[in-house]
User: What shape does this take?
Amino acid sequence: MDGQTLQEILIICVCFPLYCYGQYQVPTPTFEAFKPKGFRVSIPDDEKVELFAFHGKINKPIIQIEPGDFSQDVLKAVNGRFSYTDPNIKLKENDVINYWIFVQHDQLGFRIDEQSWTVDELRPIEELNEVSRCINPRITTEEPNKLCPGDEIIHDTFSGKAIDLNTWKVEQYIPEELDFPLNIYKNSPEIVEIVDDTLQIRTQLAQNFSQNINLNPGCTRTDNMFCAKSNRHQTVMWNQPTVSGKLTSKRTFSAFVNITIRAKLPKGDYVYPEIYLQDVANPESLILIAFTRGNENYEKNGIDIGGKQLYGGPYNISIKDAKNPHNYLAIYKNAEHIGNKWHTFRANLGPDGLNFYIDDQLYGRFSSVSSPYADFKQIEMVRLVLGIAVGGHSLFPDGYTSSGKEKPYKNLDRYSVRDFLSKSSWLETWSSDTGLQVDYVTVTAL
Ligand SMILES: *[C@@H]1O[C@H](CO)[C@@H](O)[C@H](O)[C@H]1NC(C)=O
Ligand SMILES: *[C@@H]1O[C@H](CO)[C@@H](O)[C@H](O)[C@H]1NC(C)=O
Ligand SMILES: *[C@@H]1O[C@H](CO)[C@@H](O)[C@H](O)[C@H]1NC(C)=O
Assistant: This one.
């Protein structure tokens, strides 16, 4: 169609922005210049855009309603945008494109005159050739393909017979790091499996905890200190007395995301769920999606920080502040142990801050100033972790009792494993509920 004729037909109903207050505002177009050549300009569709006409001239003024050196009427949105693409226009930095555009929106015409755009960068031509699904995606993953807002980064309903190894790595190593939990991670069906469309991760007593530990073959770490330990001198004090499991997402991403997990959290003394995002570059830096202690209660001076409390928020697991390990976390107080029932845990991690929900109820909110860990303006690459662990050296502060029984070990004490084992009344609290069950997990890009 001849753009000028069309424009003449529509000029009678052109609505200038001055008179259109409160109505459709033509969005500022997104311009992209490519090297060695190629040019694209686009506006988002809002389902009422019927036509997008672009008229431009390079480094020369364009007068109102002049067709220009290049122009096109775009009548159809592709992947949510009305785009004018010309693969042959050759631009260089600081070239100025003078243009006017015309948009027909819900049967009204809108014209924006006397505009200009200066080429500020030349993007690789591959970005023009690949199907442009969204402009300037904020989301990056290790894979070259880009993601758009609304795309699912991770989605698993655990409905297969086995764990989807494209999505997850099933860990097997000795966690000689971070909070030094009192378990090893093992990839075995007694520990990690799918039952009735549910991911189940369990923990159990290591039968031969004082023997040599050798997690080769199948160890998921390269450094052998995480894979094998020999039975010399104090290993009886140091070797992990329990076995549990952990999945880490293969996909890492740097994005603002919504995370939804329907899960039943573990119950049992000194067991805790590991449901968090972990910074790939700084593994001590976590965003806890759902943390609770497996203990029915965990009390000191009448204050109970046991399983009736759910925690969420950014957390640095290296900060072993025994007085108040969860100083900065959001807390939800439940009438009963959180692990008694299935719940839906959600985290909305957006540019304005982090929001945490249980069963659609908002219980925690962090702006980038309210937490020293919440400055997510410069979000780093993270991965999702689903697992359970036992004990550790910061998550169960000393001086508390669990159902009246003293904590069996002291944080950061070299005899912690021995003491944990010798005062093993915690084992009586472990049952078939001492596992993490996950119905589904979804991570959606925002
Ligand atoms: C993300 O979560 C927020 C807060 O619950 C919600 O308003 C928004 O619609 C969600 N976005 C997506 C893409 O799921
Ligand atoms: C524990 O160690 C004993 C003696 O070395 C061995 O016979 C037994 O098979 C081991 N049990 C397990 C579960 O590894
Ligand atoms: C976490 O805390 C440790 C110990 O205070 C500190 O060295 C480290 O830099 C912190 N990490 C991040 C990502 O803030």
